[in-house]
């Protein structure tokens, strides 16, 4: 491999923003000042100190469960004055360790802040508190024929604040774009307790640099999001869901080119490999979709076809032209849900049936095929015999690469080797002008590798931003930036 440059992955240069460990008396004082809001119950600290990455040991000093923006502002002002480190926390479904408290921090959870205002059906907006659960926002908007089109399988637990702080992607990005596109306004509390109202419900606001966008995707390092005005979309009409069996990645992409020629909107174009399906079938009572197994599967959702029957000639032509080996078109909503389960159950099934080392990378679509060929070549020669489960939002150039721990290999050895493999992977990603994190963020998990995607000058500017917003480095210290 050329260009496999990196500092040793676990060396930690001095962090100018990192807070010092706080004394016990400071935490006791916080608890005393905010009764019923701050707790140091060990069970709560263990639960709230973790996110879905499951690779860090929780070690939080305290947990705050504020009810109002004023509570958040007072807690942050106190922490800033005492230099107490704070981890903003949402539904803790994050996959980058962003919400992990492993270094004696205060977890500031927005869980109690779930208010959802009435839907504005003229402006198609809704203002919610940051702790509103993503799926609850969908349910709140549904009676009005509207939705907030941020959608993925963790939506039953993830929160609006976490979605915005990670600029979440998901299964509908190909149709609607990232979370960023669906946020009109933010209320943010800065590290020193100042409250900013950014944007409100304005669709247009060209008054200089857009500060709101800085908080979207900043993973809780610049401020705590307390409320958001969400932009809503009309709920889609009839959706047609297909599953296809294809031979290889080249055919996944060939089919994608074909699908783009249809007059209908693509609302999802997802793929997964046979190894993902096999693990899903081990974990959940689902049946194989086709009589014979296939190396690759594609889930396609189309919007706008006049009727399901109208799509059948097109489906037949895909077989005739040998673009697909097998395929099915859901006839009922229950069939469609069963096909979606094949894709959406994968993340959970990999963790339930083994230990995956996860990566979430993005590539320009035009680079996908050459990237995958090189990836296969590098991994089969340098790390032979590993089970690799590939799936993801391939229509967005987003691959989830999961290397599974072999049963016979000790966990420590697997994790040690994972660091080496990551360096190879990220060098390849950089060579193909991709990103080391498509949608999960950087958090703790990828902070040593940020330089594979962001230049030295960019990283210096990110440090300058951090200094401007949070000069004492109390917010999510050690996350994203080293
Ligand atoms: C099964 C599964 C499937 C998933 N699928 C997808 C997917 O398809 N696409 C995708 O993008 N992600 C996916 N994720 C990852 C995750 O669900 C998203 O990143 C989600 O947006 C995180 O929301 P959360 O509320 O759980 O945030 P958390 O995990 O609690 O926090 C995430 C980050 O945001 C910060 N944060 C949280 N709340 C706030 C706040 N109010 N103010 C400031 N910072 C805050 C935290 O400090 C942390 O850095 C998946 C996760 C799982 C477990």
UniProtKB/TrEMBL annotation:
Q: Which Gene3D superfamilies match?
A: 3.30.465.10, 3.30.70.2190, 3.30.70.2740, Uridine Diphospho-n-acetylenolpyruvylglucosamine Reductase, domain 2 (3.30.43.10), Vanillyl-alcohol Oxidase, Chain A, domain 4 (1.10.45.10)
Which stretches does the entry tag as region Disordered? Answer: 1-26
Keywords, in A-Z order: FAD, Flavoprotein, Oxidoreductase
One Pfam family in the UniProt entry: FAD_binding_4
Cofactor(s) the protein needs: FAD
The chain positions of domain FAD-binding PCMH-type read: 56-235
- Biased composition regions of type Basic and acidic residues, renumbered to the chain: 1-21
Record-linked InterPro entries: FAD-bd_oxidored_4_C (IPR004113), FAD-bd_PCMH (IPR016166), FAD-bd_PCMH-like_sf (IPR036318), FAD-bd_PCMH_sub1 (IPR016167), FAD-bd_PCMH_sub2 (IPR016169), FAD-linked_Oxase-like_C (IPR016164), FAD-oxidored/transferase_4 (IPR051264), Oxid_FAD_bind_N (IPR006094)
What the record says about family reads: Belongs to the FAD-binding oxidoreductase/transferase type 4 family.
UniProt name for this protein: FAD-binding oxidoreductase
């Amino acid at each position: 491999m050329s260009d496999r440059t990196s500092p040793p992955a676990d060396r930690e240069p001095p962090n100018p923003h990192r807070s010092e460990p706080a004394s016990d008396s400071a935490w006791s004082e916080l608890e005393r000042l905010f009764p019923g809001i701050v707790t140091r119950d060990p069970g709560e600290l263990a639960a709230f100190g973790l996110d879905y990455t499951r690779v860090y040991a929780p070690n939080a000093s305290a947990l705050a469960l504020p009810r109002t923006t004023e509570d958040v502002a007072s807690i942050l002002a106190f922490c800033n004055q005492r230099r107490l480190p704070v981890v903003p926390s949402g539904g803790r479904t994050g996959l980058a360790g962003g919400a992990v408290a492993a270094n004696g921090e205060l977890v500031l959870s927005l869980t109690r802040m779930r208010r959802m205002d009435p839907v504005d059906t003229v402006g198609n907006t809704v203002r919610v508190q940051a702790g509103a659960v993503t799926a609850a926002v969908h349910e709140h908007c549904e009676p009005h024929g509207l939705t907030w089109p941020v959608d993925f399988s963790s939506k039953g637990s993830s929160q609006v604040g976490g979605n915005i702080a990670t600029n979440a992607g998901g299964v509908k990005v190909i149709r609607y774009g990232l979370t960023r596109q669906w946020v009109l306004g933010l209320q943010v509390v800065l590290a020193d307790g100042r409250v900013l109202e950014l944007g409100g419900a304005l669709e247009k606001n060209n008054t200089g640099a857009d500060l709101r966008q800085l908080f979207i995707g900043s993973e809780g390092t610049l401020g705590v999001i307390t409320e958001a005005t969400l932009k809503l979309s009309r709920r889609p009409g009839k959706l047609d869901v297909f599953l296809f069996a294809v031979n290889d990645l080249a055919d996944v992409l060939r089919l994608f080119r074909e699908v783009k020629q249809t007059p209908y909107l693509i609302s999802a174009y997802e793929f997964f490999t046979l190894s993902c399906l096999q693990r899903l079938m081990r974990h959940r009572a689902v049946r194989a979709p086709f009589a014979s197994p296939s190396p690759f599967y594609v889930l396609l959702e189309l919007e706008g076809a006049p009727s399901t029957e109208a799509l059948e000639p097109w489906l037949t032509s895909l077989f005739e032209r040998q673009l697909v080996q097998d395929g099915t078109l859901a006839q009922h909503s229950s069939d469609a849900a069963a096909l979606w389960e094949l894709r959406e159950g994968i993340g959970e099934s990999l963790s339930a049936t083994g230990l995956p080392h996860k990566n979430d990378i993005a590539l320009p679509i035009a680079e996908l095929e050459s990237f995958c060929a090189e990836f296969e070549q590098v991994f089969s020669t340098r790390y032979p015999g590993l089970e690799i489960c590939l799936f993801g939002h391939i229509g967005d150039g987003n691959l989830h690469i999961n290397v599974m721990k072999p049963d016979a290999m000790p966990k420590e050895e697997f994790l040690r080797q994972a660091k080496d493999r990551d360096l190879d992977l990220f060098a390849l990603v950089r060579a193909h002008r991709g990103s080391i994190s498509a949608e999960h963020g950087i958090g703790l998990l990828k902070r040593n590798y940020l330089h594979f995607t962001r230049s030295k000058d960019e990283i210096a500017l990110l440090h300058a931003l951090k200094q401007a917003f949070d000069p004492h480095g109390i917010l999510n210290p050690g996350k994203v930036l080293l």
